[in-house]
Design a protein that fits this description.
Blueprint lengths: L2 H13 L2 H8 L3 H15 L4 E4 L2 E4 L1 H12 L1
Length: about 70
Amino acid sequence: LQFRQIEAFRAVMQAGTTTAAAGLLNTTQPSISRLLAQAAAATGLKLFEPERGRLKPTPEALDLFEVIERN
């Protein structure tokens, strides 16, 4: 994973939406969505499920987030 992909993933995990994550990182929502798609492709994991306008992390995403937060 590239740093920017990790940064976008972490922001979405914290904020709950790509729009809010974009605000945290001073970028656009489409940029965050693209970075998440790249992160999912790079890891081979499905990271989020859409749920009522928010992104619900999958168990794999929770595990990845734990690893990222530890390091």
